[in-house]
Design brief:
By secondary structure, the protein is an alpha/beta fold. The protein has three domains: about 10-80, Winged helix-like DNA-binding domain superfamily/Winged helix DNA-binding domain (Arc Repressor Mutant, subunit A, Orthogonal Bundle), CATH 1.10.10; about 85-115; about 120-280, 3-Layer(aba) Sandwich (Rossmann fold). Helices cover about 60% and strands about 10% of the residues. The chain has 14 helices and five strands. It has helices spanning about 10-15, 20-35, 35-40, 45-50, 55-65, 70-80, 95-120, 120-130, 145-155, 170-175, 195-205, 220-225, 240-265, 265-280, and strands at about 135-140, 165, 185-190, 210-215, 230. Strands 2-1-3-4-5 form a five-stranded parallel β-sheet, sandwiched between helices. Strand 1, helix 9 and strand 2 form a beta-alpha-beta unit. Helix 8 (about 120-130) packs across helix 13 (about 240-265). The longest helix is centred in the C-terminal third of the chain and has 23 residues, at about 240-265. It is globular.
Length: about 280
């Protein structure tokens, strides 16, 4: 992981939970259910309480992206101190429409703030540089991520860079096979395990195409194999899936890339925008 190691212990656990083995789930459940006990316990005490080896606890901490138990405990302590909680858990069936709307807004703001805190300057600069130097940029995503890819295409058309978006898996692999080492493909997958997206990524890489991934903060085939991974933070609740709540962060990451690229291509973009506005004006008569 490229994110700040002192953040998001609980989210990392939830994001990877489905891939844990039995003993790992036992440790994960204990951390999520008793964070106050963890931050005041040694690794030996935790291992004894769970009847597992200290090495098993240590490997678990490494598995979720920390250098060791102490680093994990520091991250967890910062979350407990901040009183981090899922705003949606406060939604009640008796809440009126305005109150529900306020809670959704606050949750979206929280998602954006959490995502911003894990965006690394180095990776973001790399992503912007790859796009600025590209002859062509394509965006791939399936399902809900396909909508994000289409939005990215809609924005980047204004930069003057030839661009396209595909949400159909056949179109993705066909187009990827035609890309070159001078092109970039942005692959969007919340889980980072979508097989169609991974296949398109492999075909693009075979052509020497540079790859950028937008995915959740978790160990996944997409995050581990793209040239530049960009991460989002989101939590699942009874009222909203994790994938759904992550889209506001995905859209914002796309916006950030677009604005940076626009600044880097200021003169070329102005020419492109002039042509687009002229064309759109014909639709308003």
């Amino acid at each position: 992981m490229t994110a700040n190691e002192n953040t998001h212990c609980k989210h990392r656990i939830r994001a990877s939970y489905g891939d844990f083995r039995d003993k790992e789930r036992k440790i994960a459940d204990y951390i999520l259910e008793h964070p106050e006990i963890i931050i005041h316990s040694t690794i030996s005490q935790v291992a004894e309480n769970l009847n597992v080896a200290e090495a098993t606890v240590f490997r678990f901490c490494k598995r979720i992206g920390f250098k060791g138990y102490q680093a994990m405990k520091i991250a967890l302590a910062s979350e407990v101190d901040k009183g981090i909680k899922d705003i949606h858990e406060a939604i009640q069936e008796g809440d009126d429409e305005q109150l529900v709307a306020e809670k959704v807004f606050h949750s979206n703001i929280h998602t954006l703030e959490e995502t911003l805190s894990i965006v690394t300057e180095n990776d973001f600069k790399k992503a912007v540089k790859l796009i600025l130097e590209a002859n062509r940029v394509e965006f791939y995503g399936n399902g809900g991520s396909g909508i994000i890819a289409m939005d990215a295409h809609h924005k980047f058309m204004r930069t003057g860079i030839p661009t396209a978006s595909y949400s159909d898996s056949h179109f993705q692999v066909m187009s990827a096979s035609q890309l070159t080492k001078n092109d970039v493909v942005v692959l969007i997958s919340h889980t980072g395990t979508n097989q169609d997206i991974l296949q398109a990524m492999e075909i693009a890489k075979q052509q020497g195409t540079k790859t950028i991934g937008i995915t959740t903060l978790a160990k996944s085939p997409l995050a581990e194999n793209v040239d530049v991974p960009l991460y989002t933070i989101a939590e699942e609740t009874d009222y909203r899936s994790e994938a759904l709540s992550s889209r506001i962060a995905q859209l914002t990451l796309i916006d950030c890339l677009y604005v940076n690229v626009s600044i880097g291509r200021k003169e070329l973009m102005q020419k492109s925008l002039s042509k687009i506005r002229k064309a759109i004006n014909t639709k308003r008569k």
